[in-house]
Amino acid sequence: QVQLVESGGGLVQAGGSLRLSCTASGRTLSSYVMGWFRQAPGKEREFVAHITWSGGYIYYSDSVKGRFTISRDNAKNTLYLQMNSLKPEDTAVYYCAADLGISTVAARIDYWGQGTQVTVSS
After folding, report:
1. Does residue 86 carry a pLDDT above 90?
2. How far apart are CA 109 and CA 38, in angstroms?
3. What is the average per-residue pLDDT within 75-89?
4. What is the spatial distance between Cα 94 and Cα 57, in angstroms, rounded to a whole number?
5. Pairing of strands 33-39, 46-51
6. How far is CA 12 from CA 38, 66, 90, 99, 120, in A?
7. How far apart (Å, rounded) are the C-alpha atoms in residues 46 and 38?
8. In this predicted structure, what is the pLDDT of residue 78?
9. What is the mean pLDDT of residues 80-99?
10. What does the mean pLDDT of the chain come to?
11. CB of 96 within 8 A of CB of 4?
């Protein structure tokens, strides 16, 4: 079992920045790819970014590439998402995810956090 707890969401103006954190607990965390998904009202949950345990493989969705940075601190069992140049269309609930594979499909993810709201005003 893996437990994930997100924090750091909030309200920010367009062009601003936020940093999300996800603290993970459980066994064999080194086996998991960690990532972020988001879900806007009325839309399906979509992939944002993920990173392998070593940090050697990182992948972003086209919609956030160049603006968001994913990282992890394995000593603290914490995953981060630094979000810069935020746009109103980034407004969503952001979910931390852990998966044994490398998947960008929400239905295949093994574990989810409870989500944190990010709202970007225009």
Report:
1. yes
2. 13
3. 96
4. 21
5. antiparallel
6. 17, 19, 11, 30, 5
7. 5
8. 94
9. 97
10. 94
11. yes
Instruction: Provide CB contacts within 8 A for 102, sequence distance 6+.
Output: 33, 50, 52, 57, 59
Specify the 3-state DSSP secondary structure of 11: strand
- Tell me how far CA of residue 113 lies from CA of 6, 12, 22, 37, 59, in angstroms: 6, 22, 8, 10, 20
- Answer whether residue 29 shows pLDDT above 80: no
- Which range of 21-30, 51-60, 82-91 scores highest in mean pLDDT? It is 82-91
Owner of token pair 């490398």: 102
Q: How many other C-beta atoms lie within 10 A of the C-beta of residue 38?
A: 22
Residue 63: which of 97, 21, 92, 42 has the closest Cα? 92
From residue 4, give the alpha-carbon distance in Å to each of 10, 21, 79, 88. 18, 10, 10, 26
The model's confidence at residue 56, banded by pLDDT at 50, 70 and 90, is confident
Report strand pairing: 10-13 vs 116-121: parallel
